[in-house]
Amino acid sequence: STIKNIVSSLGLDEAWWTNITVAAMICLFLLIQSLVLLRKNKR
User: Fold this and answer.
1) Record's superkingdom (predicted)?
2) Segment (H or E) for 23
3) Global pTM?
């Protein structure tokens, strides 16, 4: 996947670190998505 390519290019190839990075990116994406939805609902 693209996320794994980004992680490996940053030199974070270790398995546990990859999992943490992917989880953090997913959480960040969900947070941004929920903020966007909240703004749409306010209009």
Assistant:
1) Bacteria
2) helix 15-42
3) 0.55
